[in-house]
Design goal:
Shape: globular
Structural class: mainly beta
Order of helices and strands: EEEEEEEEEEE
Largest sheet: 7 strands, mixed
Number of helices: 0
């Protein structure tokens, strides 16, 4: 049984940083692609980072490019999202997702497993 467990969310002031983690059980983060999505109240789910091919391929949307960094630790079977220069509009529930695809983008339909989410709140 695959389980993805997020942690590390919290509250921070604008301009600050947070790192969220996603520990995988029953699934190796080096198999396919791992991604982070977020969803704010009343808004659609948005992909903010994806990492594939054991970490050699990464992609970000323009809304977070240069501020967010996705990485993975294969030994710990964990994926991280480092978020810097946070803005109030980054406030959302952040979800980790896993895909068996070797190449996957930021569309939620590409992902097979999801975590429960961790809340990130950025105050102005």
């Amino acid at each position: 049984q695959v389980q993805l467990v997020e942690s590390g969310g919290g509250s921070v002031q604008a301009g600050g940083s947070l790192r969220v983690s996603c520990a995988a059980y029953g699934y190796s983060v080096s198999w396919g692609c791992m991604a982070w999505f977020r969803q704010a109240p009343g808004k659609e789910r948005e992909g903010v980072a994806v990492i594939c091919s054991g970490g050699s391929r990464k992609s970000y949307p323009d809304s977070v490019k240069g501020r967010f960094t996705i990485s993975q630790d294969n030994a710990k079977n964990t994926v991280y999202l480092q978020m810097d220069s946070l803005k109030p509009e980054d406030t959302a529930m952040y979800y980790c997702a896993a895909s068996f695809r070797l190449v996957a983008g930021l569309s939620s339909e590409s992902y097979n497993y999801w975590g429960q989410g961790t809340q990130v709140t950025v105050s102005s």
